[in-house]
Amino acid sequence: MSELATVAGVKVILSSILPTSNYHTALNAAPQTTTRPLRRIRAVNEWMKSYAAAHDHIYLDYFRAMLDGQGMLKSEFSADDLHPNGAGYAVMAPLAQAAIDKALAR
User: Fold this and answer.
1) Are 50 and 91 spatial neighbours (Cβ–Cβ below 8 Å)?
2) Which of 5, 22, 61, 101 is within CB 3.0–4.6 Å of 31 for a Cys-Cys bond?
């Protein structure tokens, strides 16, 4: 899709996958860190970052901005260890705007 967008003159921003955590695990539910392992998320994010650089796209790194000291999604940014809440989006919004501004300036 990014290659088609480039051919069409569309600026491409690829955003990282958010980290997960295991702070809000419900009874009888597997933690998000088990179903969506952080090592796999990191690997995909690294690939995406490299791909963006090689194709002159913008890479938007939400992952690092959302991490806590344990290397997981900050507890206060999600009620289910996966999806951001208002506090999470408050961190993400200026990062998204900065990426958009950077893409439009190219």
Assistant:
1) no
2) 22
